[in-house]
Amino acid sequence: MGTSISELISEKIDAMSTSERKAAQTLIANYPLIGLRTVAEFSAQAGVSSPTILRFVSRLGFQGYPEFQQALQQELAAQIQSPLNRATIIQSSKSSTAYPLMEAAIENIRETFHHLSTQQLDDATEALSRTRTHVYLLGGRFTDPIAIYMAAHLKIIRSGVTHLTGQESNWRDQLIDMGKKDVLVIFDIRRYQDSLIRFAEKAQARGVEIVLVTDQWLSPIARFARHVIAGRTAVPSPWDSSTTLFLMAETLIAGVTQKLQNSSAERIRDMEQLRDG
């Protein structure tokens, strides 16, 4: 699989000018649809000039705007594939390795962390390490186990951690207690879950800082998120792999543990004493 445009942005954003970053942020927040509009429409929404959009596209490595749009169209087609579509594609191709899914998962991890900037991880880790905030975690049909896993670890490290369970109506009830000092971690991969998107929009409207962990095609939740961490999920299977997302969750857990090492060590000691008692 080739490098996605969101990965190219993560890789190159530190070298971009201020106006090019505005273009990048506009694209991420409206991914991929704003990039499928005209240069003039893209530039107007980003609040930059048309030449800036063309320089932004060139910095990503495209020869021109049509080539950039073609890449976005291919990503959009991949984004909406169902497991049945993927099964048909896989059956038409043969793997040269004994364990193709394992090889693909390893490559996904390698490529994800190659394109992911340390600043993205540091910023998300910092948000999760603010002990005065309350951290909420939520996932979709296939990604909620990652949210549960991450919440279980964070609860050991720090106080004020809640995994949102049950139906969408139960999540909405939690909004009454959520505000500007809080952080919401959401896991969402293709085909993106409407209930998660609706909840993220409501949380963002209340000032909640959102950390989105998603795939390389970017959940629509990106438009509401302060932090977007994208990982590769495609493997030779009708089902996407969550291996990379689990590792990103573990990376964030490790980062928070390190930042809160003194208080977390004391908390763990107290917890062990309570268990022994």
From TrEMBL:
PROSITE patterns recorded: HTH_RPIR
Pfam families: HTH_6, SIS
GO BP, sorted A to Z: carbohydrate derivative metabolic process
Domain HTH rpiR-type: 3-79
Keywords: DNA-binding, Transcription, Transcription regulation
PANTHER family, alphabetized: GLUCOKINASE, RPIR-FAMILY TRANSCRIPTIONAL REGULATOR
Protein name from the UniProt record: RpiR family transcriptional regulator
